[in-house]
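Blackboard transcription, Thursday session:
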Amino acid sequence: MKNPLIQLGIIAAVLIISWQALRQVDWLTLFRVEQATQNTEEKLGDLLWEYNSTLEIELKSDSALAPLKKIVFLICEHNNIDSSEIKLHLLQNSEVNAFAMPDDHLVIYTGLIANCQNAEELSGVIGHELGHLVENHVMKKLIKEIGLSILISMTTGNGGGEIIQETFGALTSKAYDRDLEREADTLSVGYLLNANINPAPFGEFLFRLAQGHENDLDALYWLSTHPHSEERAANVFKFIENEEHPKDTLMSPSDWKQYQNYIAHEQ
Amino acid sequence: MITLKTFSYKPSDHEAERASNSYLMSVIALMVGMPFPIVNLIATFIFYLGNRKSTYFVRWHCMQALLSQISLFIPNAYSFYWTISILMGEKELNNDYFAFVIIVAAVNFIEFLATIYTATKSRKGIHVEWMFYGDLANLICPPKS
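(Written on the board underneath:)
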């Protein structure tokens, strides 16, 4: 066995076979990685929500939450998502914004409801944020922005106020990667179609924000966290051009207006 | 895997010491440069450059040490990149990663043991040839080059 090429082949074969054999072992379960990740996410979610709840007022009445819960339940039910895991929060804030937080917290600002022309537009945004949660974009973004070691240290009580503030800011006021936004949009449209909700208004919502933000400072906030809205609207329309749009509406125009008035009154 | 062979001549004590140092250099650099996989390769390469005009016994062992470091560098660099990607959130932790890292760690450990063994043997002037690397060193580093 003098030929180095044959020896190299034998070494490579041994290594590849060993790697293939080791790949069959469920190391993630063996090292309890998923459990540790889940625990970290839960602690992080609690920590950030605790911080957020000191800053803003949460609307908890059934009348305020019922339409939102209905949309979340509808989307989840038709897309194999466990709706009981979703922690829905409606916060008093005039900014046009919604965001996902670790441990399946889904936060919606009243400003978003005020700027949606119908329940389908809101459903598109909710579907988009659910897409971020389902695909674990939230943790990916935080790890990228903040760093895994700092996130873990936060959950063990070593995170200072500034780090929590920075982490919260990364979730609420910094955009996801363009690819992640596009993926969440595509998922949202798919979710809506599965749930028999017309996705076209979601595209119209993105397009309207991109076009009409000059006179609306609150909408500017949404645009800063969700850039390229015009391009994204075009993608949504392209995605659904060959799809048959569901005709039924979630809420009649008068019911939607009444709901918006109720939310505005609550503010 | 490792064979003790008779060298074409009996190396002097000074040669044996330098040949042994070529292996020790990679081990020390590995400890200093952890976790960066390039450090031990650079250290071994510099040591090889410094000894490329030395006697055959020294050159040969520097070459064997360098070849082993070059081949280790690729999987080490990839596992380093993979780990950083996971920490940065670019990639997800999965069973493939654990399998790869375990294999790389095992290869590094075997190489570490072989390096220590060869360093002690070559210090006594005993010629040690590793599987694959020894034959490759014979091809690259002929007696009169």
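Lecturer's comment: The CA atoms of residues 29 and 43 of chain B lie 6 Å apart.
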